[in-house]
Amino acid sequence: MKSSSFLLAYHFSPITHHSYVMPQFKTAAVLGIAIILQLSLREAWPPLSYIDFPLIVVVYIALQREAWQALIVGTIAGLAIDAPSGGLLGAGGFSKTLTAYLIYFAATRINLENALLRIPILAAATLIDGAIYFFWQRSLGNPPSAPFVQTISYSLIGTTTVGTFAMYLLDSVLSEQVSLRRQFASRRRVARRGASSLKRR
Question: Count of domains in the chain?
Answer without folding.
Answer: 1
